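Let's sit down with a protein and look at its sequence and fold side by side. Go ahead whenever you are ready, and we will take it from there.
>
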Amino acid sequence: MLAMRPDCECCGADLPADAPGAFICSLESTYCSECSDELDERCPDCGGELLDRPTRIGKVLKAHPAVAERRFQS
């Protein structure tokens, strides 16, 4: 199951699990759409593609909440 990380690893932008606009690689590194564009949709960690992260809403989000730990390091 996806961890649904709450922030962009490049800029720290909030990326709620129930909203579009997050991009992930196969290792779940997570970026906002602007940073993903700047990275040419390639993950700087693994070199893999950055793809749209699906949203998680309603009962499923309540049963499987997003992780709270933020990854952005300023």
Remarks:
- The chain has two helices and three strands.
